[in-house]
Amino acid sequence: MFRFGIVALLIGSVSTAMADVTRFRGENGAGHFEGEGVMKSWPEGGPPLAWMADGLGQGYASPIQVGDTIYVPGMTDDQVGHIFILTAEGAPLGRITYGPETLDSYAPGSRSTPTFDGNRLYILSGLGTVYCINLDTQQTLWAVDILERFQGKNITWSLAESLWIEGDRVICTPGGPNGVVAALDKMTGETVWATTGLDDLASYCSPVIVNHGARRLLLTETAKYLIGVDADNGRLLWTHKHITDYDIHAVTPVYDKGLVYYTGGYGSGGGVVELSEDGASVRQKWEDKKLDCQHHGVVLVDGYLYGTGHRNAQLMCLEMATGKQMWSTREVRQGVVIYADGMLYVYEGPRSGVVSLVKATPEGFERTGHFSVTAGDGNHWAHPIIIKGRLLVRRGDVLLAYNLKP
Fold first, then answer.
1. How much is the average pLDDT of 208-236?
2. Which phi and psi angles does 400 have, rounded to 5°?
3. Which residue range(s) make up the domain with 379?
4. Total domains, the chain
5. Which residues pair with 188 in a beta bridge?
6. 36 burial type by CB count under 10 A (0-12 exposed, 13-18 middle, 19+ buried)
7. First vs last Cα of the chain: how many Å apart?
8. Looking at the predicted structure, is the pLDDT value of residue 169 above 70?
9. Helices in 36-107 by DSSP H: which ranges?
10. How far apart are CA 332 and CA 356, in angstroms?
11. 130 occurs within a structural domain
12. What does the CA dihedral 291, 295, 296, 300 come to, rounded to 10 degrees?
């Protein structure tokens, strides 16, 4: 049952001038969010809870918010996936059914964060179907089984990619011989291009498209490779092999000034490759085993990378240009890392649930507040978002909103 409860409304209306959050990890998938005017330190017990909504089904997908409307996916007990719709104050507005979801025994439910474009939402089920949903009619415009179309196979813990919209195209990663990466027409679902020439499965990575010189370059990670693809025509430009346990590559590559950072968990770590001027080739610049980030995201701030390790379970800062470790700490363990207005927000999981506020500076570790998420059930894995002065944290069938402004 979809239920709603106001725990406490502690501040008045918040300005709507801030940017919407329309996709996984915000604009460009970088984990950066607008946070002007938010607190730089928290009182004991953390920021005040504004509201809590429950009954959102099973899943690990992040919410998104467009204007004053929140969308968050979840799977109900009948294995059906829905987009639950809430007001900005957590009140239920309804739900849109999109189709069957994965019953994966380790992590059942929705795992793809929807991507908003115009009056449509795009979401990939764990079973491999891309859905285009018209928000005006609340109906599915089209659905494409990308595993069937491109002859891919589902992966160990089911597909978990969040889709990228590029102009009139939806970018996805089927991991098949007929298309390791593919672009679909966002209005019809027809294939625009498909990347061939690489025999590798998909992983759990969401792609990013960047400007490098005169080229639009698509970057993502498959089961065993970091890859670069021409975003205009889907041509595979280069691959860089990187092996990690269970083929888990789940961290979107980070691009900055011709450098591309990649990482994986289980002690495999990562490194940086340097692109050629035309983006058609790469060379290894440095490698690192310390920051073995599993699926928790890495943020780049002023030339420095911040993330948490998996086996090396600690928060750390690396200089992107050189790989030099600036600092590390065991006070903050493995967790999702996002950024706003000079501060890191780290949501530890799978069992801890501690949220820490940390200064984003290479000069040293300084935590200025923390609290624990105790509501909801299951692993603490969903990536939080920050919007309009609030931190939105999803755990299981619960979404919590914390006031970050004094």
1. 98
2. -120, 140
3. 1-89+367-406
4. 1
5. none
6. exposed
7. 34
8. yes
9. none
10. 7
11. no
12. 60
